[in-house]
Structure formats: C-alpha cells, structure tokens
Specification:
It is found in: Cell membrane. One of its GO terms (molecular function) is transmembrane transporter activity. This is Putative MFS family arabinose efflux permease. This protein is mainly α. It has a single domain, classed as Up-down Bundle (Growth Hormone, Chain: A). The protein is built from 17 helices and no strands. It is globular, with a radius of gyration of 20 Å.
Amino acid sequence: MKAAANFLFTLSLTPGFTVAKFDANLSVDETSSTASSPTRGLLPLLFVGNAAMYALYSGVGGVLLPLQIEQIDPANKVANLGLVAGLAAAFATVFNPVAGALSDRSGRRNPWILAGGIGAIAAMALLGAVHTVLLVAIAWCVGQAVVNVYQAAITSVVPDRVPLERRGTASAAVGLGVPLGSVIGVVLASLVADHYSAGYLALGLLVAVAAVIFTAGAPEQRMAPKKAVPLRDQAAAFLSVLREHDFRWAFIGRALLVLGYFCVVGYQLYILQDHIRLPEGMKPATAVAILTPISAVGMTLSTIVGGVLSDRLDRRKPFVAISSLLAAAALLIPVFSPTWGGMLAFSALNGVAFGCFMAVDTALVTMVLPKAEDAARDMGVLNIASAGPQILGPFVASAVVSLAGYSPLFILGGLLSVLGALAVAPIRSVR
C-alpha cells in the first residue's frame, strides 16, 4: 500500500534457477555456498512487477481517490479521505500477512501473484463505478485486499530466490519500481482526472499485465508445502516474530518513517489545493504530475547508489539512518516555504531520502528474518509496518489538518522520520 521503486541495467544474475532458502543467521560465505543462483532476468521481472503495483497505489491514492471523494462531498473531503484511506489500509494490514502465510503453506508464489493481478482489474472497475463515500470505502477496501495478495507473494521472491550477498542489488531492483511506477501511475491518473473510472481500470489492467509477465518469465519450483495451522496458532506466530530483537526494531523503524511519509504524501493533492501557492493557471492534478517525476529521479538515483554501495561496504544501518534524517529535513521545506519552488525542492530531496531508505531497508529486513522457511509470513508481518501506518496516517493527518493546518503536518512527519532513524541503532545482527 503503500508505499517506493528499484531496473534493468546489470540486474540479471547468473543463469540457471532453483528455489533456495536462506537463513538470516548464516554468514555471507555460508549463504553463498549453499544458495543456488536465481533465474536470469529475475530482477528485471521484479522491477516490472513492483513498478506496476506502485503505479496503482500512487495513481489511486495520490490522484484518483482524492478527486473522486472531492467530487462526491467537497466540504468534507479531508475527513472523508482520511476515513476511506484508513479503512482500506486496515484491510491491507490484515490481508498482507494472511496472504503471505497462505503462499508459504502452498509452497508457491506465482499463483498468488497471478490471482492478485487479475483480481485488480475487477476491483478497480468496481471502484470507478461507485458514487457515494460509503461505497468508495468498500470498493477501495476490496482493492487493497486484492492487491495485497499480489504484494505479499511478490515481496517474498527476494528472500526465496536471491543469495544473501546480492540482497542489496535485488532490493534496488524492487525499489526502482517505486519511482517509475509512481510516475506512470500519477501521470496516467492526471491525464484522465476528469474520467477517473477509466483511470482506475487502466491501473488495474497494468497490474494484471505485470502479473502475467512475471509468472510467465519467472517459473518457480514448488517448495515443501506446510501443514494447515489453526488460526489461533497463526495469529500467535505473527505476533511471536515481533519478540525477535532485531526484527522488532526493524519493524519500528520502518513504521515510523512510513507513517511520517504517508501523513504528508496521502494529502498531497489537497496540500497543493489549499496550502501551496501554485503558479497562475496550474491545476493541482497537473502539479502532482510534475512533482512525481522529480521525486522519482531522486528516488531512482539514490536507490541504485544506496543498494549497490550498501552491498559493497557491507553496511545497511548508516544508509537507513542518514536517509531517514534527510527525509526529516525535506519535510520542513514546505513549512518555511509554502511555494511552488518549495514543493519542487521538497519533492527532489524527499525522493532521494525515500529511495535510499526503501532500497537499503528492504535488504536489512531480509537479513533479520528469524526463519527462512517462514519468509513470506514474516515479510507479511513486516509489511504491517508499511500498511499499519497507512491506517493511522489518514486519521492523524485529517485531525492535524482540521485542527491546525498543513504546516504542523509537515513538522509531525519530520519528527517521525527522525525517530525512525534512531530506531535502527539497536539492531545487532546487521551493521
């Protein structure tokens, strides 16, 4: 849901393919000696699959959904957007780890990726066809549930198939999907802003096509399926992983930064409407379509540099901490300069910060997973750190904006980013 993008240069790895399991407690040398090489072309396919997903998230959340809600009830748009986005994020939080556990149990990822991708067409068609705030909330909840089935499975491909020492590069391939996907989604949504139902359908079709391409191009070997586990035991297992020291702090750090990020980004269209002095004649939807590519360029560069350098230096924590602090600095720019120029600077700097964070933090996270055989379930739990703040974020943001305006919202986002940077310090198993 939520959510950052990572390409095609030398991202293909060694020829040949087998599904391999990786234990986060193994050393790099141990992992290298036991892991099989992933299929050639896997990383570009991960890039495509994630780009399509983030195109949908960005196009819907950044443009189409706010416009649709504003058209239905302009006077209460801030509160209504917070309600709809928060409820939908709750569905995402539930479906992501559940779908991850189901794909673990089945021993497969590709069928879940394909099912989620095809289901996105129907969900987006439904969302574009409704005309009340209640029905929009229900339809977007369905959309979040479907796309999170897709997300949970494709997120687990990296710990399943990529050797530990290449996780930074693989995470860059995943992360680069965020800036490109964001640009595609926002630009596409802005072009059809007056006909949002067509925009919804186009974004759903994009995810479906990506799912077909990925599953056709990256065949998998079935892993050993797991026995059915009672729901109570599954819930206990989801919570038990948070007792792991390093995993818990990785969870907290991501949750704080993502909360700060989505408190602001989720309201970007309304911020441009009500807070920023735009150039004469520029529409807010057009402004979003300009700002997103600027952010994407910074995100792309920092994702590549951050992912590759973190591999070469064998360091993750410094990159995560610096990018979090940089995000905090970026969020203060519109407070002191609520102008078009200030937003341009904010978008560029925030893109650099968030791209580096997502690339390196994803690699860090795969290294603190307690058990390789539970990778999808545990990654699903960690994805709550992305989805959970999107439940709380809209409610917090709408309350802050309603009571105090947009400037305090930026300040809150910056504070949360600083706390996110501090949270990586206690992690022991990753440098």
